[in-house]
Structure formats: C-alpha cells, structure tokens
Amino acid sequence: RGIYSNPTNPQILMLQNGVPMTALYSGDKGSQWGGLPLENIARIEIIRGPGSALYGADAYSGVINIITKTAADIQGTELGVRAGSFKTRNAWAVHSGKLGDIDVAGYLALGHSNGPNNTIESDKQTVIDGLANTRASLAPGTLRMGYDSVDGSLELNKGAWRWRSGYKFRNNIQPGPGVLGALDPVGRGKSERITSDLSWSGMDVVPNWDVSAQASYLFYTQEYFSPFQLLPPGSIGFTNGMFGAPNTWEDQTRVSVVATYRGLDAHTVRMGMGHDDLDLYRTQEIKNFSIQVQGQDVLLVPFADQTPVEVPEAASFMTPHRRVVDYVFVQDEWRVARDWAFTGVMRQDHYSDFGHTFNPRMALVWDARSDLTAKLLFGRAFRAPSFTELYSINNPVVRGNSELKPESISTWESALSWQATADADVNLSVFRYTMKDIIRLSNQQWNNAGVQQGHGLELDVSWRVARTLKVQGNYAWQRAKDEATQADPGFAPHHHVYGRVDWRPLGAWTFGTQVNYVADRKRPAGDARPDVPDYTTVDLNIRCGEGVKGWSFSGGVLNVFNADAREPAGASVSIANDLPLPHRTFFIQAVYRL
C-alpha cells in the first residue's frame, strides 16, 4: 500500500497463535529472525489495513497471524527431509497423540543454509574510498546470509484449556550486505526466542456469556558473538577495521480477558482488557571505537589498540528500559436489518512511556445478493515507537528521542466480494489513507516529522476451472505522496501482479507454476539514482503425494529464468545497485507419514 519506513516492516504486526512476535528494541520481528519453517503451520491469517482497534500497537497497515498445528491437524507422525541450493538442508518431525485424555502435538526441526551467494558490486566503503582516496572496500563481494536453525514446539489441549510452547534458535547468522552497508566477512550472530501461552475458553459460563482468557510469555535475545565488521581494515582511522556488537535481552509478559454477550436482540457485544509488561532488561555492547560530538560533527575515534572490548553500560548503544501497557476495548456487532450489519470497535491503550492512544474501527456490510457482498470500512491505527527510536545513545548514525509520539494512520476502504460461479471468487478493495506523525530521521535524530497520503486498489481472483485445475492471482496498484516533498515516498511498487496455476493431471501428481511481477518503484526524495528496475520471476514445482507406503516427494525450481531481481536499498546504505534476490534455486523434498 506504499507504506514503508525501514526494511523490517514495523508497520506490519506479526502474531504467532495470537501473541505478538515484536522485539522491543527494533519494533519489528527482530533483525535476527532467520526465517520460519512451514511444516508446523496450519494456516496463516492476514488482515489488510488498520487493526489496532483489536490488536493494538503496530497493526498499522496489516496483521499476519501464524497458527501452528494442533493434534487434530497432524493426526499421526510425519518425518521429512529437504535439500537444495546454497547447501541448504532441513530435517523435521511432527507428531500427535494422546497422554491420557490430553491431546498432544509436538514438532522439531533442524536446518542449515549458506544463503544466496549473490554479488554486491559496490558498498558504503566504495563511496568512502572515492572520497578519501583509499582502497579498503571488499566489493565486489558475496552477500553473506547463512544460518543454522533449531525450531520446536509442544502443545497440550484438554477441554477448554490449551497450553502452547515454542523454541526458535538461529545461530551463525551472517550479516547480509553488512550492518552499515559495507561488506562484512567475519560478523556472526545468534538469536533465541522462547514462547509460552496458556489459554482458556468457556462457552455459556453464565447464560448468554462466553469468556476467554490468555496469559503469554516471550523471551528474546539477539547476540553477536563475532562482532560486526562495520567498516573494513584500511578505512579512515581504522587499521584493523571498525567493529561493533549491540546485544539485547528482553522479557514480555501479557495477560488478557475477553467476554462476549449474546443476550441482546440483533447485537453481539464483545469486551476485553489486557495488561502487557515489556522489559528490555539487559543491554551489552562490544566495540573498538568511541563517539565524540563536535558541534554538528560526529567523530568516530578508534580505541588505542583497536581491539573490540565490552564498554560500560552508560557508554553503550542503549541502557535497559521497560514499557507497561494497559488497554480496554469494546465491539458491537449489530444486525441493522436482514441484509445489513454494522460492526464498531473502540480501543484505548495507555503506554507508560508516551501516554494514551485511542483507535476505532467501523464496518458496514450489505449482503446485496446471495452471491454479492459490499463493505465500507474505516479504521485508525498506530505504531508505537521502538526502544531504539526512543532511547538510542552513543550511536554514530542516529540518536533516540524520548519525546516521540506514535505514528498514526486513518484508512477508508470499500470492498466487494462476488462469488461469480460455484467455483470462482472475485474480491476487490479500494482504499485511501493518511499517515501522520511519521517517525523519520532528521538531523541525525528520530523525530515525528511527516504526513503521507496514499490510495490504491487490490483485486483477488480464485477459479477452480476443473477438478484437476485451479487458477488464482491478485493485482495491487497504489500511489502515495509525501506531503513534505510532494513526491512519491519511494520503495513500494506501483504495480504488483501475482499468478499461480496448479494442475493435477495424473492421480497423486501435481504440477504448479507461479509468476511474480513487481514494477514501477520510485526512489525517495534526495536519491538521484534511476528508478528501481522492474522484475519478473517464475517458479515451478512438482509433487507426488500419497505415494507408495506413506511416502510423498516434491521438488522445484525458483526463479527459473534466472532473472536479475533486486529489492531497493536506501541511499544511506550506499549499495548502488540495490539488494539482489537469489538467482535460480533448486530443492527436493521427501516426507514419510507413519
């Protein structure tokens, strides 16, 4: 929809089984995410547009909720292995069963990948070399995106009670194009995420009342056991290179209660409240430089022997901070008439660090015909400032600002859902939004400094042509304008087309192909480079399911025609030719069900 502030998409709220995966430090899912395997995912729910009225902070332009498999989804034991390009290999086991009258579901996966070996033609040090007449850059050089992975989960379910726990570990994470946009051949990190949630759901606890409650815990740490090489040896003032490792540890505890009342004619009222205790309780920085401010200039001064050491907390990138959130919401689903329904939601959040925020959402739905539904929606949402935006200190690039307010967005949307035939669905939505108090860099500090307006449309089509053939696709178009520059804010494509065909001509054999077309991406104001090149990628896959004695096999080729596809890198990163996506990639997979 044209909404962009940094590459990690903090305006998208990612949930896992309804629990936010947001890292306090960065305000997104964490810079050391390292992918998520699909084998234990039952479904992925996506809500487009503002959702803060129900989901709170960061449900700004959309919500993604990843639902893991229950015992009913698994029904037995599955073992699988996969291998592919870049020395990628994975193995996993999924199992469900009974422990007395308790349903049990378990999952364990191990993986490794060297990551794509694309080339970065020039980097930030290339620019510095041009200005300082040095030759320190490691470009052209290889993009480093390898990692090792461990994923596991356990779920117990008995009646109205459900307990889930999860473990996600990423090790030897490589820094991609480099933290400062300079190639880094030595930096490595790790992240660890432990989740646990207990929920209870009761129907008709008292007449006409349904009640549910949930308590969840998240531990997250990201550490860099081999400090990032921010600039290579030979860069100005750094004979041995410039190194840094900002490490964080955080705990998040959340409790919520929701009650639904069905005792009113034509109304269903839903009320909820919750409390979040969000604590980034430890920070640590290892580096070989200090920062000195002289007027408007920020100087990077190397330590005498240029050896990376742990610095005192007050001299690190941030000191620990804590955030407490309390919220209440109420929702009314009102059947106005036989073919008309109105839903209104209001939510009030109170943050200990920046105060109150109020966010409504309304939807008017008309069932015009049995096969046609029209909707008119309005919503307001907010993105909470991350801890690095609020409290960053001793940073050579940017300073935090404890006076920040949350970003806000107001969106109007109209939508049509048409069941064209028994086997074909068409969905169209048209939207317009206004963003305010956008958190942006100005004078090397985060500030609320911006208004952006945008509009566009999204079209989705799904058609089962025959029992053995299914076609689906979508098209998105958008335009946005930054009020300060009166120009396109950049990065997001004006046109995005996706299409997929699945064909099952012979028994258990399925052939699939998908096309992804991304076009017309502008540069933000101040970036004089040509527009980001368009690209089209084509993927092919084949699967033989329900094979001999429980075996199924699949394989595929991604980016079949080896397109030079690139995602935009901001001018501050100084990677002139943007970030290359993987070239042609192969994989094969085998799964055995007991």
Structure description:
The chain is mainly beta and 594 residues long. Helix content is 4%, strand content 61%. It is built from four helices and 36 strands. The protein has helices at 52-55, 71-74, 124-132, 387-391, and strands spanning 12-16, 19-20, 41-48, 62-68, 77-84, 88-99, 102-113, 119-120, 141-142, 147-158, 161-173, 188-206, 209-226, 228-231, 242-264, 267-287, 289-294, 297-302, 309-310, 321-337, 340-351, 355-369, 372-383, 407-421, 424-436, 439-442, 445-448, 451-466, 469-482, 493-506, 509-521, 535-544, 551-558, 566-567, 579-580, 585-593. The chain has a 22-stranded antiparallel beta barrel. The protein has a four-stranded mixed β-sheet with strand order 2-1-4-3, with no helix packed on it. A hairpin with a 3-residue loop joins strand 5 and strand 6 (88-99). The chain is globular. The mean pLDDT is 93.
